[in-house]
Amino acid sequence: MTTITEYLDRRYPGDGLRADYRQEIERVCSAFLASGMAGPKFNAELTSGSGSKFWSCVSEALVYDRLKKTLPFPPRSSIGTGPDFLLSYGAKRIWVEVVCPEPVGLPDDWVNIQTNRARRVPHDAILLRWTSAIKDKAEKLIGSADGRVKGYLQSGAVSPDDIYVIAVNGCRLRHGPFSALRGVSQFPYAVEAVFPVGPYEIRIDRQTLAIVGQGYQTRFYISKPGGSKVPTHIFLDSRYAPVSAIWAVDFNGSSVVGNAEPSAIVYNPNALQPLPRGFLPADTEYVASPQGEDGFLLERFSLRVE
């Protein structure tokens, strides 16, 4: 079996910053494997040569690296079945399911940055990757809409009394070294994927050209290239109430060479089991509360000095 060191030496050859990065990924992955928290297929999938499997494994290792610094991992019956991580908060169990969406549908010159060339941000394509990842991991918990596929709740892997968090690592949607955590609204894509928040708009009277209003566009759906509509308001849908929060992260280990690895928590205001604020490490938190008859107030709280 190929070792982590051997595989990373081939994947990231070289000296200097490249060596620093390679050593950081090796440290994180080796520590995760040694902890006993990794699934039985971790080493094989990490070194398989599949980009999807590699980043799935690295994402889990990087999330573990953040969590282990401050949070306890209670014992669980088995590793590799059910959600990726089990945490505890008093008597409450908190499950964290990790996903790293692939850059499907993104232009090649966005994913592979071109020197001295400006590029329009493919906001919709990136948002579609977030909505897909969140939907997939939500249905891992609640099952499919048609009832044909059972979720963790139906199998008993997760109790209705447990807290469930989806950790979405958007690092593969980056533009080179530049983070792509924020969408066209300047809120994180995680916010745009679960609340009907679109781009900021200014409304102008066509006759007088005077500004008559401004604010964030209300956007309940986003269209796929083929024309079908994807909902962007699942935190307002009671079917998704078992999902407590989205932990939006942009982790790829490159902070060791000076790049940003931001993160944010987006809380579900209708969660059956709310995630305690401040429990998970993040730069910012987004909290929605009812306002008026059919509106809500979305507030941003910074958890770190910017």
Write a brief caption for the model:
With about 300 residues, the chain is α/β, with parallel strands linked by helices. Helices cover about 25% and strands about 20% of the residues. It contains eight helices and eleven strands.
- Uncertain runs: none
Cα-based radius of gyration, to the nearest Å: 20 Å
Number of helices: 8
Identify the overall geometry. Answer: globular
Characterize the main sheet.
Answer: 7 strands, mixed
Instruction: Kindly state the percentage of residues in helix.
Output: 25-40%
Class by helix and strand content? alpha/beta
Q: What is the mean pLDDT?
A: 93
Q: Biggest sheet, strands in spatial order?
A: 1-2-3-8-9-10-11
Query: How many extended strands?
Result: 11
Strand content: 15-25%
How does the SSE layout of this entry go?
Layout: H1 4-11, H2 17-35, H3 42-46, H4 51-67, E1 85-89, E2 92-99, H5 108-111, H6 123-142, H7 152-155, E3 163-169, H8 189-194, E4 197-204, E5 211-218, E6 221-223, E7 229-231, E8 245-249, E9 263-267, E10 284-291, E11 295-302
Parallel strand pairs: 2-3, 3-8, 9-10
Antiparallel strand pairs: 1-2, 4-5, 6-7, 8-9, 10-11
Can you describe this structure?
Helix 1 (about 5-10) runs antiparallel to helix 2 (about 15-35). The mean pLDDT is about 95. The protein has eight helices and eleven strands. The strands form three sheets. The chain has a seven-stranded mixed β-sheet. The termini are far apart. The longest helix is centred in the middle third of the chain and has 20 residues, at about 125-140. With about 300 residues, it is α/β, with parallel strands linked by helices. It has two domains: about 1-75, no CATH class; about 80-300, no CATH class. It has helices at about 5-10, 15-35, 40-45, 50-65, 110, 125-140, 150-155, 190-195; strands at about 85-90, 90-100, 165-170, 195-205, 210-220, 220-225, 230, 245-250, 265, 285-290, 295-300.
